[in-house]
Each structure stands twice: as structure tokens, then as C-alpha cells.
Amino acid sequence: MREDFVLEIGSEDLPSRYVDLAIDQLRETFRKFFESHRIDYDELHTFGTPRRLVLFVEGLASKQRTVEEQIIGPPAKAAIDNEGKFTKAAEGFARSQGVEVKSLHIVDTPRGDYMAVTKKVRGRPTQSLLKEELAELIGSIKFPKMMKWDNSHLKWARPIRWVLCMLGRKSLRFRMGNIVAGSKTKLDPYGRSMVGVKGPEDYFAIIEKAGIILDSAERKRSVKRMAEKAAARSGGRLVEDDELVGIVANMLERPVVVRGSYDEEFLKLPREVIVTALKSHQKYFSVEQKRGFGLLPLFVAFADGSKKNISGIKKGFERVLQARLDDAVFYFNEDTAQPLEELAQKLDSIVWLEGLGTLRQKAKRMEKLALWMMQAWGVGGGDIEGKTRKAALLAKADLASEMVKDGKEFTLLQGYIGREYALVSGEDREIADAIFEHYLPRFAEDDLPKGIIGVLLALADKLDSIAGCFALGLEPTGSQDPYALRRQSLGVLRIMLERELRISLRSMVGEAVRLVLDDIESSRVDMDPGKLENAVFDFLNQRFNVMLKSEGYDYDLVLSALSAPWETPVSVLELVKELQSIREEGHLEEIVLPIKRIVNILPAPYKEGYSRDKGLASLKAFSSHDTEKLGISVEIFTDEAERRLFNKLSRFSSKMAEIYEKNEPKGIIEVIKRLKNSIDKYFDKVLVNCEDEKVRENRLSFLARFFEMVSLFCDFSKIAGE
What we know:
CATH architecture of the largest domain: Orthogonal Bundle
Strand content: 5-15%
Radius of gyration: 35 Å
Helix content: 40-55%
Number of helices: 27
Number of strands: 16
């Protein structure tokens, strides 16, 4: 027999950000419970509002499934004697399991033959299991912050005030702290009356009649639809904000829309200041013109419950918003009474990170690194250098402003406020835009800086932060990344890839490290510059590995490309794309197999200690036919196939040098293709590990130099077989 099951956990209002988290945990907790306890069901649903979490299970089995369980006993040789009779060990095992000895049978295990018995394990009633386990299951749901509220010491995000639990029409009573579960729910958060429920179907009918929207997804759709209609009725258009829709939807059970307005004078403030004032503290939606980008002095907000006294609620909302916007006007006027350059001077008194100096020092490092990258990129000339210098020194100035400092809701507008203040101060538009753009990208799908100066400052700021934190031992560990270094590293990589910057990332890291170590307090550093540079570069490479695999590229191709000493992310991506394309065409194995043969035949000592310098030295020696530097003797090549491969490598080495110099790795695959036949013939004709020690060493040295040269482009040994 199967019945529907409903569980409702009623509490004081959960923070909006906790609701979806709790719904997901509720679903996973009970899914695992039913699975591990062999309890079947048809469908499992979870819902949630700030005041109630609801589990609804359709067609829950009345008892656990009966299963057969095999229990292993003593070894067969100890259980059966030489005459084939059961021993006392077998009889004791059978007795302990409550079966006759003739029920035992032999099973083959990894440890040999053992005696076993197969028993039926009958299921217990679901009702009994639930009553025993429900309190612990509910208590296992975790929140970022928990609290205790009575002498039961129960911990939850907010005090639990009631629990409804019904299997069919039966109430399952169990104790949750000082609360006893029953068959009543509460509809009015401010009242004391409870409403009796006859069963799961009745529960949902009562909830629906009360206007409570249990499904968070449905509530989000409802909030968005109501907000858009309200904005349209006011003669405008809702400013799209899906994040705010989610926040508001999880603050309500019965959304009621409220339309309000504010003084048109406030529209003199920058747009995002108004939008942020409405959203961050008040959770109001902004309204903009139907055509155009300008805001209207209107907002859309939500109340929870009935539509009674909407005019009073509206006046209260408007009064609170007036105070927030008054504050914003005060901050704006205070800040813009002085040029942005004067605000920048205050950065001298703001510490960025203890041990790494002030924000003014960080701005100076950003300036120097940006100018260094400008030269490496070859984009100097005109007035770009002067604008870059000024933009760097003003980039962090808004952190000293009244609007942004001290963790107000407007702190989120760092960069945007800097741009607006720069324009008010009469700064060049390119400089103002760079002040905003140097924070980009701020999250995974965010825009990238568009202007050259914005690109330079964005890279300089992020690399300086990563190098500085690593110098102080503040690198990310596990899930902890308090300085958002992983996000900033992905920002560096995205900018370099999408702008196709063929600047050496290692050189950029080296310069960032040098500038940081010039400023840092020497007593805080226990790492030499080379080790610090390697640590930062390896960290960026690790993040690049994660990025490429998340974009669907095969793990072995990513690893093979990243293992080569390419210094520009663009080159790595191009190589991975080329390898991926060839694999999908079905030709990769035949191309890389000859190189793998070389790698496989070389003893470990010939491959150990590989470095970029070794690879470049071999490339240069092949290009110049310098056999002395290659460490080989052409004179003792005994087979024509050896000479042909050497000559072909020497001819193609200049092309390989060009490919490496230009950081354009796609061409290396074509070179390998053209070398394939010569390599195959070499292995067909030449016995590398011959008896003659001198000839053998010469051949191994030749192949080792070939391996070193090819490894500049890709570690083919890491490519998995097809």
C-alpha cells in the first residue's frame, strides 16, 4: 500500500539567501534517506518560503523492500572436513544466523572459498522509521549561520515554531526540540491560530486558498510578471534584475505589488547610484523610460500578505527611500566638491594589505606594470602613455570617497563611481572609462574592458593582487579564497584570450613579482623571486587547465599543451583547438604515434631535467647543423634512414623556430605530419638499442635532442591513445 506524505517545517523568517539552499538540502537529504532505507516512492518534491520548508512525497511505500542478504561465514576448508561433513565451525555459524546447517553454501570470494547463508531481510514499516529518524534528518540541514533559541539546544537558521507531518490521513508525532509534530499549520505569521489539516491533499488546498505560493520558481515568475506589469502601468519599463527577483521572491509567501515614487531631483545622481540605493538596502525595482536609458522617479516594491493598507505601506516605503537617497546626494556633493586627483592623494593613508603598503603604492605598481605591458604589446605612441599613467593613479581614488568607503551599499559601485567622478572633474573620457573597466571582469559572464588603457590596467591590477597575496602567503586553499584570486586569475586569462594578446604571461608575472617585492616589507617574505614567480605562474596555469576542461576540451590535450613552455595563453588555446579538431576527425593517433615512439624508447635519464632552455638549445643546434652542441656524431650514422631523418630535422628546424618565435603553434602539427614517414622509416630500419655502445649512445642522444626540440611545442606523451 502506498500513501502520500507531507512534512512542513515552520519557522520565523529565514534570510532570503537561505531559502533555496534549504530546499535543495531538504530534497537531497530525504532522497538519500529513502534510497538507503529501501523505501520506494513515486515522486519527491520540495518547496520553500521564508516561513516554511515543505517536503511532499507521492506514493510512499508503507514499508521497506524485502531483500536477500548474503552473510559470509568461516572459510570452507574450516567448515567442511575431509569426509565432506560440516564441522563445528559451520554448525556454530548456522546457529548464530538462526538457520539449519544444510542451508549453508560455498561462495567464491577474493580470499578464497567461504561458507555463506542467504537470508531474507524483511522491511520495517515506513511510519516507524520516519518517527525515529525525522528529527535527526531535519536537524542535519545546515545554514551559513545557525542559532539556538530555547533550552532544547536545537540549532537552526531561525527558531522553528511548528512542524506538520502526515502520512496519508495519519499524523506522525515526533519531538523536534521542544516542538511536537502534529497535523496543524500556521497561515498568518503574526497570529497565534493554527489550522487543522486532514491530509496532504487538504494541506495543499489550504495553502493555495490562503494565497501562499510554495514553489519558489513559481514565486519568482509571479514577482517578475507583477513587477513588469506595475512598471508598465506607471508608464515605464522595469529595469531588468533577475538577481533581485530571486531575492524578493524568497522574502515573501504572498507577494503584493506596491508602486511608489521619489523626488525627480534625485535623478541628477548617477543612474547606478539610484538603482543601487533602491536595490541593495530596500529591495525595490527601478523603473526606466519605455524608450531610452533614463530612469523615471518611480519604483516597484513588494509587501507580503493582503492588499489592505497599501497606501500606508507605500508611504512608509517612500519615506525610507527618501532617507537613502538623501544620503547619496550628500555623499555625491561632498565628493565632487574636490577634483578626483585630490581624492587620490588620500590613498596614501589607506592600507591595501598589511605588509604590502597603501592603495597609493598599489596604484603606482599598476602604473609601472601597465607601462611595461604597453611596450611589450607594442601599443605605445601618441598620448596613450600619459593617459595610462593618469588612469592608473586615479583608478583607486573612489575608494577614498564618501560614497564608496566604509562598506556602505554603494561600495559595490567602486570603479563606476570613479568613472562618474572623473567625468565631473573634467577628465578625458578614455581615462574615465579605464577607471571603470580596470575592475572587469567582476564575475564569470561579465563584460571585458574595451579600451586599451582599461585592458592594461585590468591586467596590471589583477596580476599585482595575485603576486602580492602569494608573496604574503595568502594564496587560496581548498574552498577558501578570501581575496578572490581564482576569479582574478580567470579574468587575466579571459582578457588575454579574447583580446588575443601574444605577450609572455610568464614575463608579465615576473614583472609583477619584481614590483611587489620592491614595495613589500622584507620581513614578511620568505620566498625568493624565482620561486614566487613560478608559484604565481603555476597557479595561473592551474586555473587555465580548469577553464579549458570546463569548456569541453579533452583533459589529456589540455595537459599536453600546458606542459609545453608556451608563455601566451592564446598559443595554448590554439594548440588545444587544433589537437581537438584532429582528434574529432580521427587522425590524431597516427600523427602523434611517431613522437610517442621516440619518447617511449628513450631511457629516463635522457628525458629528466627537461627545460625550455634545453629545448631552445636543441632547436638552435639543429638549425645551424651544430652536431657538437647536439652531442652527436653524424659520421657514425650507419644507416641511410638516420641521415635522412637528421637532414630533414635540420631543414624543418628553421620553420619550427619561426613557429615558436611567433607563438603560433598550429603549424607544429603540419611539421610533425611531414616528419612522420621519415620517423617511421627510421624505426623500421634502425635498431636504436644496438650492441655497439658508441653507436647506441649516439642514436639515443640524437633522439633525445629531437625530444627536447619537439617538447617546446607539445608534450605528446601525455596524449591518450584512441
